[in-house]
From TrEMBL:
PANTHER family recorded: ADP-RIBOSE 1''-PHOSPHATE PHOSPHATASE (PTHR11106:SF121), GANGLIOSIDE INDUCED DIFFERENTIATION ASSOCIATED PROTEIN 2-RELATED (PTHR11106)
Domain of life: Bacteria
GO molecular function: hydrolase activity, acting on glycosyl bonds; metal ion binding
Transmembrane segments: none
Organism: Actinoplanes awajinensis subsp. mycoplanecinus
Protein name: Protein-ADP-ribose hydrolase
Cofactor(s), by name: Zn(2+)
UniProt domain Macro: residue ranges: 77-265
KW Hydrolase (keyword) present: yes
Amino acid sequence: MLGLDDYRQLIDLDRPFRPAAEPAAPGRSGELIARLRARDREHLRSLLTVRAPGPLPHTEAAVLDALLGGERARRPAVDAAALPTVDGTRVIWLGDITTLRVDAVVNAANSALLGCFRPSHRCVDNVIHAAAGPRLRADCHTIMSAQGGPEPTGAAKVTRGYHLPARYVLHTVGPIVDGVLGGAHREALASSYRQCLDLAEAVGDIRSVAFCAVSTGLFGFPKAAAARIALTTTADWLAEHPGVLDRVVFDVFSPDDLAVYQEEL
């Protein structure tokens, strides 16, 4: 499995993202979408979802940067540092992870680590890639090509966040539960959380991390058990690494998910 030092320079991880164009004003969205040969915004989203990884031509990259940058500027961002904590560090928050201003967000990826190729699919993998832009998939492809095989369950990789408010994305492959929940599933999920936290520490300038509810969607992990593992694993890690992180956010998708986390806490 490829370690951080093996791919850090390959994807210019430490270079701040500089878009190829300034954010566009709201009135220019239609013009920019047309220049990208899309009928409308949803069609463009679909085209980007199914697009193979790789760099865009410079002209198209500038147009897309203007469009995505303008959309980000108009999307209210939530500062993780301002959210109330449950214990001084950890936060349980109901909201859109792509609007969270935090050092790193966690993406629940599949073993190919290239995002979701299903247009309009509402999985967090698709949502994060759509907001960040196609450079995210290109970086993941660079990493996976160097690795030469699929990402193991319970492991993690990191890329820049591009058009997200978050500077980094931590990509982890959680376990798939198809049947009875077992000890191996539990350990694999705990590993996903530990690997993301270890990687955040290794990057060197990450002080806040926001987790999605890894494996609880299509991967079928029972939500209460997953929340218990998330809370316990992060509590243990923070106790073993005092002062490394200022905020750990558990981003939940629905009021029911929020209630699960509150109950498990």
